[in-house]
Amino acid sequence: MKSTSTTSAVRALAAAALLAIPALASAQSPQSNRALSQLTAQRSRLGLSEADLLNPAVTSQYTDAHNGVTHSYLRQRHQGVEIYGAVADVHVDRAGKLASLHSSFLPNVTEIARTAAPTLTAEQAVAAAARGLNMPAPRSLRVVKAGAAAEGIEFNDGGISLDNIQVKLMYLPLPDGSLRLVWDVTIAPLSAEHYWNARVDAANGALLDKTDYTISESFGISALTQPVAQMAAAARAQPATGTGSRPSVANSYNVWPLTIESPSHGNRAVVVNPANAVASPFGWHDTDGVAGAEFTITRGNNVHAYDDRSNRNVYTAGTSVSPDGGANLEFDFPFNAVQAALPISNLNAAVVNLFYWNNLIHDVMGLKGFNEASGNFQLKNYGTAGLANDAVRAEAQDGAALPVPNLNNANFSAPVDGTAPRMQMYLWEKSELTINVTAPATLAGPLTALESSLGRKLQATGPITANLVVVNDGSAKPERGCNVPLVNAAAVNGSIALIERGKCGFASKIKNAQDAGARMVIMMDSVPNTTTLIRMSGTAPDTVGLRIPSVFVTKADGERLKTAARGGQTVSISASGVVYYRDGDFDNGIIAHEYGHGISIRLTGGPGNSSCLGNAEQMGEGWSDFFGLWMTTKPGDVGTTGRGIGTYASSEPVTGRGIRPTRYSTDMSVNPATYGLVGTTGYTAVHSIGYVWASTLWDLNWALINRHGYNNDLTAATGGNNIALQLVLDGCKLQKCSPGFLDGRNAILKADTINNGAANSALIWQVFARRGMGANAVQGSSSSLTDNAAGFQLPTVLSTQKALNEKLVEVYPNPAQNQLTVRTQVSSSVPVKVELLTLLGRTVLTASASAARIQAEGIRLSTTELANGIYVVRLTTSEGTITKKVMVQH
């Protein structure tokens, strides 16, 4: 007889789940019982049957010491087989009460599941996955760790993977609502460009789904061919090995220390005994948990840093560079800051800096709760929680010695807990061009241009001097150069070809000019009234065989050249270029950003699931930017000062915007990002989406600093900066798998309730409402970028409170010069009246607008005609009046 008793159902459910992970059965059965009881209690609300909740797998579970919350992460199973993407997270406080719960368990699994027996074997599944991923067929595949199909089987690398290949039988939800039996296969290709987690049909081997555990930055700058001359010089050069003239200091590292973002932001310093005694109790060079270093090179329990210039993706003793600090562990290597210095000459210093920062982030984040239990990165876990054997493999100057080197990028691969991640740091190039029009005299002078990523570089070809010829392809717009052969091919031969953007791709245009004998191409924009230069790029097969250099100029400059050439004047041009390199291993913001991917991936959905941040609205890049900014905030910094990301690597001044749409700042005139941008043109890619999220977290950090102060000790629990980081990390743990922006907001609010008794709730709401994530914002599906809507309202309980104060109104810039913007998130049932008064109370400006408008974009006041001095902004709403002082300074 089937029992309908809730108590007996819970007991059966708990027992079955615990059997799924034997390690949890004895040590954490009370916590698992509570989690499963809470999930079962929500069965009706979730629309699930008893059968749907039967026998879930507990993928991970741990309790946070700082707040007593037990986090349980589960995956739905049918007939003992796990269902991919059907997960739940249950968070119970130290009193045993439910703090938070989310579930994507599927209803009616008994009806929608298809065949329960696979046709393909696990070994055949590996071969099928390799085919589907365009990888070579595995060779000499053998089982390393046997197990039941539904529990997982481990194969060797099969000659195609950097790590052993993991295979598990699972169900995959299909778009038609059914469940298909699949083999889940995890392969790390030898190129290290990807780390695939793929699902192939267990009946026919077809590739049905795949997830890439490698998060590649792809900053929008294509890899460029390294100049031949520099390649030859680099091949002959060797990294400097001597130390400086400083006195010997044991256990020391000459690096850009904590809070110093790069060589552009501050000086290098010798840091002594930096390992934290709690997070790294045996130091940074231990691997066995016994006093004394096992390694004197840049290798230890948390990270092994070494060079991978040849892109081998493995450390080879005697070949790979992993600097040796000797018995005293003194890591002091020269650094040549000269712009023209070859990167290899600074390789030892680069690897040491990479080692130091990976360890530093490990220790700081470990004290905030990214520890062994929650899935941090360690070769050996000194406690009993979590899985070991996953120290970071940090590869410096990755692929720099390849014929076509890896440039202008970085990546981080974060598989599940117990499997080692990989960080790859690249060189970044800067091309400096000298292009001059030498005739006619009326046009003579320098030409502003951006070198293409197509063909050869001007540094490689050497200086080019030739006459300019406008191409003619015989069409209605002959200067586009799309039709071949070119009508004026004879004239183009030996010349510099001028081509206009449009109709066909850049690579095709350049190839057509090259085939006609052109020595170089100047590509003019077709878009008027813009000064933005485009770095031309393309893909194979169009790019194959391109040998001549090419540059991009504005339409205005192109029109001047075109008019003169078509008018019969001889237009002569000389062009030359030089390429310099900067090493991402010295950009500590980028190192922290990459490591941050591992943090957000391991914390969201638990360390046993690395597939929770692949949805469209996920904020992975935003968390990583925030971690980079947070780790490099110095005492004395202020939130209104703009902070770029990657300014050192991209050869910009520290005041540059780097590789994001704007600098990060609490000043809306510097950084106007809001949730309303997400999904619009230019804001559909991961970095631009993440930029909006990071903008909000950065505001939150400074709002908490303004309330609680800044603590120089980044390992402490007090201070607004430390409180902010703790809330962000705990929010990652509390949010659902595949979160959207509002899910992330709610998780941070929940973390503040748990950690601080909701003491910062109003402030958090103000921060998020200001960036469009207020109480009336709509997220829609986190898998879509088209159903979200920004909202700037505070919750009713906050927006209608009578105790209004100046913190609820924002005026910027302050001081104002010619224009002042006034914003507030306070609600009003009548239009908001905005006045600007002198200190004597005389009204000099008046305006009004709806509350919705002032919440979303503010109201702008012209201060052009006002005298310098202090004024008072007064807002009158249905809920009360708010005043705030502002300075006008012309």
Overview features:
globular, 8-stranded mixed sheet, Nuclear Transport Factor 2, Chain: A, disordered N terminus, Elastase, domain 1, alpha+beta, 33 strands, 890 residues
Blueprint of the fold:
Elements: H1 6-20, H2 22-27, H3 29-41, H4 43-46, E1 57-63, E2 70-78, E3 81-92, E4 98-103, H5 109-112, H6 122-132, E5 143-145, E6 153-155, E7 165-173, E8 179-187, E9 196-201, E10 207-212, E11 214-216, H7 228-236, E12 252-255, E13 269-272, E14 303-307, E15 330-331, H8 347-367, E16 392-396, E17 410-413, E18 422-425, E19 427-439, E20 445-446, E21 450-451, H9 458-461, E22 464-470, H10 489-492, E23 496-500, H11 506-515, E24 520-524, E25 550-553, H12 555-566, E26 572-583, H13 588-603, H14 620-631, H15 686-708, H16 720-734, H17 741-756, H18 761-770, H19 796-799, E27 809-812, E28 819-824, E29 832-838, E30 843-849, H20 851-856, E31 859-862, E32 869-877, E33 880-888
Parallel strand pairs: 3-7, 12-15, 14-16, 16-18, 22-23, 23-24, 24-25
Antiparallel strand pairs: 1-2, 2-3, 3-4, 5-6, 6-7, 7-8, 8-9, 9-10, 11-17, 12-13, 17-18, 19-20, 19-26, 21-25, 22-26, 27-28, 28-31, 29-30, 29-32, 32-33
